[in-house]
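Hey, I'm writing a tutorial for new members on how sequence and structure tokens pair up, and I'd like a real worked example in the thread rather than a made-up one. If someone can provide the structure for the chain below, I'll link this post from the tutorial.
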Amino acid sequence: MTMLFTQTVKLPCGVSLHNRLSKAAMTEGLATAEGIPTAELTRLYGLWSDGGAGMLLSGNIMIDKHHLERPGNVIIDRPPSPKMHDALVRWATAATRNGNQFWAQISHAGRQTQKMVNKNPKAPSAIKLGLPGGQFGEPVALTTDEIQDIVQRFGICAAAVKEAGFTGVQIHAAHGYLLSQFLSPRSNQRIDAYGGDLANRARALLEVVAAVRAAVGADFPVAVKLNSADFQKGGFAFEESLQVAQWLEEASIDLIEISGGTYEQPKLLGIAGMEEEEQQNVAQSTLMREAYFVDFAVAMREKVTVPLMVTGGFRHRLAMEQAIESGSADVIGLGRPMCVMTDAPNQLINGLDELPRYENSLSLFPAWLGWLGNIKLFRTLGSFAVQYWYYGQIDSLGRIGKADPSLSVFEATKQTMMLQKKLTKY
């Protein structure tokens, strides 16, 4: 048995995680068109609770039905109805049935709202997402009053999940969603109190943190998922991330999860989705340890004392142990492996050396397809198609209680597209 993973993690609010392994946030798409958690979502999280993680993070719970990350998101944009509350209670009960923490990841997609959901989503500035394919519409700049409404919605959502039995919340300020858009000078070109220098660009996030803390109280875990960088020229830089982390610590955050990238530059989708030149620019030690963001965590640890969570690419137990022993990570986030091996935390605790990796065998658009035209388009499609395969595994776990590794990428993509169309309200 690996004792290092079973160490507890004491959070500033006084709550402890009973081990250092967490199921990372992954979008599920298992809510109704109205955003109510289904029996499939409850079944899924019961399986993950049985898997041995000290904490489970939900996928995006959206605070505005007009700004979804994808159709099928859970939506809490007002005080919940009795039907919604009861569904949330069932979800939280299943997700905590083995004594683990279950935190709600709360989010607003901003300009990363798909056109099928909203043709003109609100964003910090009217700057369209730079992706091929026409999947995202023309954004409209938020007014100051609309920003304040969004801040309050985060608080409403946090209060609702706490009442339903969730044991913590994570504010999503990474991966190019709304709060990440505010932080980046590429997507935030405002000239008012929410744009310009870093203090202004971080204002929306810090106001959301304050609203959530006021809604849940001092002894309830509040975390933030923060980009280490956007990995784009002129975007949110690592030096800025270090400063924001210090402001978050001052604002009573209990844990920071370090991630990186946006839809335009999808580091979050893994090393395999990077350009060859970009791979060479990532520190060799990071590639060797598999954890994409460990090197950034090392630098962040020098600036803050708040517990840090690192997610992204971990497969070998040794790499996870090194991250913990070095002090660069207090909590290890596990994502894609748990879409097939739902008990991955228990397996690691009991001595498993390596988690399964499926990405390479699932490559849908290999590099040689670049001769067909737009190589960036094919790489983008390939990354999302592989992601859809994992959506298919999550869907299978929710429906029948077991994964379906034999599912083809093409079939998973077709299923995902059909389901999203079914769940979309025009």
